[in-house]
UniProtKB/TrEMBL annotation:
Keywords: Hydrolase, Lipoprotein, Membrane, Methylation, Phosphoprotein, Prenylation, RNA-binding. Pfam families: AAA_33, CNPase. It is found in: Melanosome; Membrane. It is an enzyme of class 3 (hydrolase). SUPFAM superfamilies: LigT-like, P-loop containing nucleoside triphosphate hydrolases. It catalyses: a nucleoside 2',3'-cyclic phosphate + H2O = a nucleoside 2'-phosphate + H(+). It comes from Huso huso. This is 2',3'-cyclic-nucleotide 3'-phosphodiesterase.
Length: 463
């Protein structure tokens, strides 16, 4: 099997790799490919179950590791698996790996190749380099963020990946052990994402956006919604409110599991070390959207997690958001579809928990109506929830989001203070909402809309 893999990689290397074949496949690399121990290519993104999702995605694989550790072999194995939709960009034979205060000028040419691939929409882009300097990673993170590519940090699993004595023999650069040890030190520092989550494939993002826009358009045209335009304050004019314009969306659609803030949030580093996170990192998942909802602050999709997916859901996530409530594990799972001006995406999860809290208390809404997509409920104060008759399944990939960390210490402190203020505001909003519901109980019968005959439930659409 190892020999056939080498032949497969050799067959496509001229097409995929932007440099001379003999240089890329040195005798040392061919020997290394044949020496691979069992399990050295055990990556979820190489499983057939994940291939389809990645072909529909936009992903940059940043391969990190010491010279001779098996990076190039792994890179071309990925290229062989994703032959028609993959591009390998390698620093081999171009940039000598070393610990230095400044990045070599040669990286500019490599970055231009990466940008070109992103502009062309290449599904799988592989960066084959040591990638041991933080400045280098930040540059690649910037490019990925600009073109909305998901980033995976990948290291070889070869038994000798950290054995400097062995690597000295295998590396084409013939680096002495002293230099290899210096490089190893910079690679041992952990790189934490801004957050972990399930990221929708490019195709699933398009379909989810279409479903969301249909919901907003349908809701905006209902007489029942028009009666409550004032819930949106100054944003609603005399002629109403355009919900599609009111909510702004940025970035890749995703369902966050754990906010990490680059490893600084309490429990973030422990979450990274969870067996489930290590096992499922870069794995493909299908998430089920059970409904859509809006508030004057956010628009989102409600996600129902399976037992397997709940393994990746942090313990106490709901309790952390609402300390005084006992809400179901995983009930905060959502996809942010858009936010009102100056509202952070994290607000979407808090808004969803407001619905969950009301449902737990037995409230079914102040009014309800059956529409084509499902059963629509109004809970007051601009809170609308659509329970879908036909659940929507979206393809996703589990990983981390790694934007460049641009905040300084002062900005970070201000952000933390803002988060605390936001929490206090949310607690106050909960109390105000409760008082408002009590006042509206007497008016419930006047606001109810007789439901029409609903459609059968239990169907599912995969996108």
């Amino acid at each position: 099997m190892l020999i056939s893999c080498t032949k497969l990689v050799s067959r496509f290397v001229q097409k995929i790799c932007p440099f001379n074949r003999r240089q890329f496949f040195s005798n040392k690399m061919q020997e290394q490919a044949l020496e691979r121990a069992e399990g050295s290519l055990a990556f979820p993104f190489l499983d057939e179950a994940s291939v389809e999702a990645y072909r529909e995605s936009r992903t940059i694989f940043i391969i990190r590791g010491l010279p001779g550790s098996g990076k190039s072999t792994l890179a071309c194995t990925i290229a062989g698996k994703y032959e028609a939709v993959c591009k390998v960009i390698s620093a081999d034979q171009k940039i000598r790996p070393e610990v230095s205060p400044a990045l070599p000028e040669e990286y500019k040419a490599l970055d231009e190749e990466v940008v070109h691939c992103c502009k062309e929409g290449v599904a799988v882009v592989v960066i084959d380099d040591t990638n041991h300097q933080w400045e280098r990673l930040e540059k690649l993170f910037d490019i990925a963020s600009e073109y909305q590519y998901l980033v995976h940090l990948v290291e070889p699993k070869t038994p000798w990946k950290n054995d400097c004595a062995e690597l000295e023999k295998k590396s084409q650069w013939k680096l002495p052990q002293s230099e290899l040890n210096n490089l190893r030190g910079s690679l041992e520092e952990a790189v934490y994402p801004l957050f972990y989550g399930w990221f929708l494939t490019h195709k699933s993002q398009s379909h989810t956006n279409e479903k969301g826009k249909k919901f907003l358009k349908t809701l905006g045209e209902l007489d029942e919604f028009k009666e409550h335009w004032d819930d949106f304050g100054e944003a609603a004019s005399e002629t109403g409110i355009n919900l599609e314009e009111y909510f702004e969306r940025k970035g890749i659609l995703h369902c966050t599991t754990k906010y990490s803030d680059y490893g600084k949030v309490k429990g973030a580093q422990e979450y990274t070390e969870l067996e489930a996170v290590k096992k499922f990192y870069s794995s493909a998942f299908c998430l089920q959207i059970s409904g859509f909802f809006i508030t004057p602050r956010t628009a989102g999709a409600r996600v129902r997690l399976t037992d397997k997916q709940l393994e990746l859901w942090p313990a106490g996530s709901e309790k952390e958001a609402m300390p005084s409530e006992e809400l179901p594990h995983g009930s905060r799972a959502h996809i942010t579809l858009g936010c009102a001006k100056d509202v952070e995406p994290k607000q979407t999860g808090l808004d969803l928990l407001e619905f969950v809290k009301l449902e737990k208390e037995g409230q079914q809404g102040l009014a309800e109506k059956d529409i084509d997509q499902g059963k629509l409920r109004y809970f007051g104060k601009g809170m609308w929830m659509l329970e879908l008759y036909e659940k929507v399944t979206v393809k996703t990939v589990f990983g981390g989001f790694y934007p460049k960390h641009k905040e300084g210490k002062e900005e970070s402190k201000e952000k933390e203070e803002a988060v605390e203020e936001n929490k206090e505001g949310e607690e106050k909003a909960v109390e105000e909402n409760k008082e408002g519901e009590e006042k509206k109980d007497s008016k419930t019968s006047q606001q109810e809309v007789k439901p029409t005959e609903g459609k059968k439930k239990g169907k599912c659409t995969i996108i």
